[in-house]
Write a structure and sequence with these properties.
The protein is about 10% helix and about 40% strand. By secondary structure, the protein is mainly beta.
């Protein structure tokens, strides 16, 4: 992460493969993960970044480099394929691999700083009568922490996570943007919570999280645990996304007390085989209870669609395309946690209120 933070390169949509074990004689186990790293920047910055990779004490191998001229003076773009290794007697764990932080605040401009032409929008106040709460739940994780990452299971999965000023509880939620294609096997997009130490000491009756949907999607939403022996346990929360607005989705975790404590380390979006899907979902508080509960927010929500940014797109041109006026570009910026003057990255998925 420090190498990426220090590099004067634009790096977006990093993809990761699942860890793979490789048999080498004399070692108990070698694990590798492929990392696809697209970039844009000046040639000297690229050379500096490659030197940092070469001199790094991390177990990284440059497998392939593809470079093209951008058309701007001294600017190149392309992609680097890396292999990250874990080896020796230590069993490979996910935290031995390296992820890009989508919104790390250190040394970065405050994403919630008020920008020019910003107009304060009245926040919607949810009346307590607009939903029915059947049972009290305990807060497990509030989603307000920094350093939350995005990870895909292969190069067929891209996306990013960022904080957005649109929350069910607290000040913000995690905006998860995903774009997935599947052929012969299922693929997943992960919201990575590895270092948050979300430990469940004994089995609750149910556990879940708040999810905000902009429309129907065939993706399955779930959470992943690790037990004390490092075994991974998936818990499906919703087979598909069939609601709009905020909804608390939950399921009963394993009830065998012998496997606890469990560490919750991932939220996942899973897409079945032979499908293409892209979209945006917001995630907020993770909660657990000792009774069956489900809370649906019946407050009226807007209708939305998604737009994949194409080369040359701007917020104003997109506003013109959908609303026949450029004046809604500020609304689009706010809805997607952007600055109105940001240059849009091709391939980005934007939420478009109808």
């Amino acid at each position: 992460n420090s190498m990426l933070e220090n590099a004067d390169l634009e790096v977006n949509n990093i993809s990761f493969s699942e860890p793979t074990q490789i048999d080498y004689e004399g070692l108990d186990g070698v694990y590798s993960i492929d990392i696809l790293l697209p970039f844009k920047g000046d040639y000297n910055s690229l050379i500096s970044f490659l030197k940092d990779l070469r001199n790094s004490d991390k177990k990284l191998l440059i497998d392939h480099i593809y470079i093209t001229r951008n058309g701007e003076d001294g600017i190149v773009n392309g992609q680097i394929t890396l292999k990250a290794f874990s080896y020796g007697n230590v069993k490979a764990t996910d935290n031995e691999y390296y992820y890009i932080n989508a919104y790390k605040s250190i040394g970065k401009e405050d994403p919630f700083k008020v920008f020019d032409d910003y107009e304060e929008e009245n926040k919607q106040v949810i009346n307590s009568d607009s939903y029915v709460e059947e049972e009290k739940r305990d807060l497990i994780f509030d989603m307000e922490a920094d350093d939350i990452f995005f990870m895909g299971t292969s190069h067929y999965v891209s996306g990013q996570v960022k904080r957005i000023d649109k929350a069910k509880h607290g000040n913000s939620s995690i905006r998860t943007e995903y774009n997935m294609s599947t052929i012969f096997k299922k693929e997943r997009a992960y919201v990575v919570l590895d270092d948050k130490n979300i430990n469940i000491k004994y089995p609750p009756q149910s556990i879940g999280l708040w999810a905000y949907s902009y429309g129907y999607s065939p993706v399955t939403i779930g959470i992943r645990f690790n037990d004390m022996d490092g075994r991974k346990i998936d818990l499906e929360l919703s087979k598909s996304v069939d609601w709009m607005g905020w909804k608390f989705i939950s399921a009963m975790p394993p009830q065998d007390l012998n496997i606890y404590p469990l560490k919750l380390d991932r939220i996942y979006l899973e897409l079945d085989v032979s499908r293409d899907e892209y979209g945006v979902i917001l995630f907020d508080q993770i909660e657990a209870s000792y009774g069956n509960s489900q809370e649906v927010d019946s407050t009226k929500v807007e209708n939305y669609s998604f737009h994949i940014v194409k080369p040359g797109d701007t917020l104003k041109s997109i506003s013109k395309s959908y609303y026949n006026t450029e004046s809604n570009y500020i609304k689009l910026a706010k809805e997607n946690a952007l600055n109105p003057n940001d240059e849009l990255e091709p391939g980005t998925v934007l939420v478009i209120p109808k």
